[in-house]
Amino acid sequence: MKNKKWKRMVGILVSIALLCSGLVGCSGKGNGGSSDSVGNSAGGTEGSGGDSAGGASDGSANGTEAAMGRFLEEEIESAILFANIFDMKRMDDGTIRLIGNDADQGKLCVWDSKDAGQSWEKAFALSDELQENGDGYVDYAALSNGGQSIAAYNQIVKGKGIIPILYLTDREGNASKIPFEMPDKKDISANGTFDASVYSSSTVYDSAGGENAENQPTEGENSKEENPGGGSPEEGSEGENPEEGSPGEGSEGENSEGEGSEDEGNADDASESYGSNNLIMGLSCLGEDQVLVKDVSGRIYQVSISDGSIKQTYEFGESSELRESFLVGDKLVCQTDAEVLVYDTATGEQQSKEDTLQKSITESGYFLAVDSLDDGKGMYWLSSKGLFHYMFGGSVMEQLMDGSLNSLANPSFYVNRLLMLDEQNLLVAANDSSSSSPTGVVLVKFTYSADTPARPEKELKVYSLNDSREMRQAISHYQKEHTDIYINYEVALAEENGMTVSDALKTLTTEVMAGKGPDVLILDGMPVETYAEKGILRDLAAIAANADGNYFENILHAYQDGQGQMCAIPARFMMPMAHAGSEYYTPGEGFESFTERKDVLAHMEPDSVVEKFWYSCGAAWKKEDGTLDGQKVADFLARLKNAYGEFDGGEDESAEIVLAMEGGVSPLHKISLDYGEFDLAGKKINANIGLYGGGDYGLIRAVSKKLEGGDFGMMPGQAQNVFVPSMVLGVSSKSMQPEVAEAFVGYLLSADAQKLSMNSGFPVDRDAFRSVIDGHEYEPKEGQETAGVMMSVAGNSEDVSEAISYEMVPSTEEEIKKLTDLAESLETPALMDDVIKEAVVEQGEKVLKGELEPQAAADAIMQKVNIYLAE
């Protein structure tokens, strides 16, 4: 099989009654509110005003002239389908050279552009010994300014694992080996797992940065880990994008047994496939005669190309982990988790600390890609926050571009390479799973436009309790199509502010009542019905009626009242599901029969068990007067306790799998169905329960085959046919620009927005829903028997004992119909009030741990909730 890539897979994961008389909306009272440095040519910060590139807001609002000038982006259309882009450099004659894989031909090639990246001609395909075959593959490659390239070929040797070999290819395409051998590895676990808990391999453009790429947000995995505000994950190298990966950090492996089957794999074979050798994790050309090589432990070797000797070795203390390293002229800039270090490659010595550069990280975020226009006197870099410039030894960092106004803020947009064409033009190679490219690999040109307002004339405020990656994707796409609108997205529960749900909603209420609140509300976790009754929300029935889509009407109209008004519209949804063998679960069974099985929920984390069943049960507790039925709450806790059994304390000690994402960690990932699938396959739990919103359907099917009578269906609950509304859209009745707000809501229901997915909720549009579950991306291409194989290992770095091997193939019509039928059966929206949920989870955890009796816990819940509802 071609392009098999190893990658880590980790899966994880309001309200007060409003005292707001005079507000009108869905309550039926009507709707209210209708070079050395860039300098002045394109300099300053977009939004800084003056002679710089922009102003902070529309200056005409206060009688001043709006600041002008900002960078606009354009995706370059090309007849070449890139499977990946390893490197991109401007050669001495001005030609831009690119090295990567041709997805159509399956070849590692070099292309040249004479017109600043607008068109490309293939210079040559690399020699056959560097092309991927059953004996090895190229995982990293780098270009020099002279046009030669160096590639790391991972040769697979049975019994020895992977042996990395460096090849030099000259400007005309002639290849030769570099006589270099990797030094012994350092600090790598004996089983070669590199401290990862889950691995998988896939042939579907993993190195290309498509939907299955390492560090792509597949099933909640990796997103921008820039801290703060985006960035690249820790396995970065000398300018190498982590999507290119390598074994243990996102590279290839060989499943010698059962490849392409849905049987249990052999973990020893899997480990042997890449062995315990030291591996190359990144390359950068240093002039024409040296190359920088990064290994798995974070050491960087400065290697002579002629004889393979190591001239310098750069090591970092145990207390500091290397995140990224880049060459800027003859300087090696290393970004650790604690500081920025600069080395002189001529001597190997660390230079004086760049205090301004160090302090700038807080403002700019970690580097994604860097370049220089003056041979390393200064450096440009990209982060999710924009484009920045710094002169070494200086005291000023310039922000030249605001990332929130373009694709840089899109969580599906991963910068791979930056090439500064000049001070006003830059070329970016990136992986964008939301792009139209089948591989997700794109070339984007950013050009400074002096005639464009630095800040769009209109500002739309969008508010949510928790961060939403789909929302950030949608905002990025919408702003590209509507350059006159800036969407200010506020996330209330950001990690750094320590705010509680209750505090956030009190603040929101105050701002709304003062007419300073958001225009669009993402109502997830908020008391939708209460807001509707108090007139906080506008009627969106007309938007739903005019939306041009093939929707699940049962989901779309979840909040429509008896008068036909719709104060909220779910743009996405999740299904509470259960998955187990027939001994522990029967699809369609009720809450009582399921929880009569003692220990069916044993060995799970107590708080997550309570939270998951809150979604399938909470809606049954609410009485007509808005209060809760205390007896049903007590019964809920008693039945969960019986199904959970005795708490032994081990559950709390389990390593938590966390998805680090820009803006925080999604609370839905830890309670997702995906989170427990590996434990279910490894028989560490008896049944898996959780919310399912578009994760790996193939994995669920593969796990079912490992279980006796394995099957999945709706999670049993006290309420029937429950779904969890997600990205619930509302427009404030106090918005001063309701037409703009409603237009954005309409966009979020459009086909373009519905197809954006990061598995945090199924689209409400039927066609987009099908595209999430049908596995169309695994359709074999011409000449292929199958699109790829994915291998997933359940276990941790100390015990790679359970493996699932299954072929990534399109879903059958029967499999598609099963999920579609479940979606069509949904009738009841889950109770969406995070204040109540927190009270239930807090007391319910004590019950499952044996610290409190169910009735006492129910009484405590009712007391807290009644106070809350009375506010």
Provide a brief overview of the structure.
By secondary structure, the chain is of the alpha+beta class.
Could you please describe the fold and organization of this structure?
This protein has 871 residues and is of the alpha+beta class. The protein is 21% helix and 27% strand. Strands 27, 28, 29, 30, 31, 32, 33, 34 and 37 form a nine-stranded mixed sheet that branches. Strands 2-26-25-24 form a four-stranded antiparallel sheet, with no helix packed on it. Helix 9 crosses helix 10 and helix 10 (630-644) packs across helix 19 (854-870). It is globular and about 80 Å long. 54% of the residues are buried.
Please describe the topology of this protein.
Blueprint: E1 5-8, E2 68-75, E3 82-90, E4 96-102, E5 107-113, E6 121-125, E7 136-143, E8 149-157, E9 161-169, E10 175-177, E11 199-202, H1 267-274, E12 280-286, E13 290-295, E14 300-304, E15 310-314, E16 322-328, E17 331-336, E18 340-344, E19 349-350, H2 355-364, E20 369-371, E21 378-383, E22 386-391, E23 397-402, E24 413-422, E25 425-432, E26 441-453, E27 458-464, H3 469-481, E28 485-491, H4 501-513, E29 520-522, H5 528-533, H6 541-546, H7 553-556, E30 569-580, H8 591-595, H9 606-617, H10 630-644, H11 650-653, H12 674-681, E31 687-692, H13 697-706, E32 711-714, E33 722-731, H14 738-748, H15 751-754, E34 762-763, H16 766-773, E35 789-796, E36 799-807, H17 813-825, E37 828-829, H18 834-848, H19 854-870
Parallel strand pairs: 27-28, 27-29, 33-37
Antiparallel strand pairs: 1-11, 2-26, 3-4, 4-5, 5-6, 7-8, 8-9, 9-10, 12-13, 13-14, 14-15, 16-17, 17-18, 18-19, 20-21, 21-22, 22-23, 24-25, 25-26, 29-33, 30-31, 30-32, 30-33, 30-34, 35-36
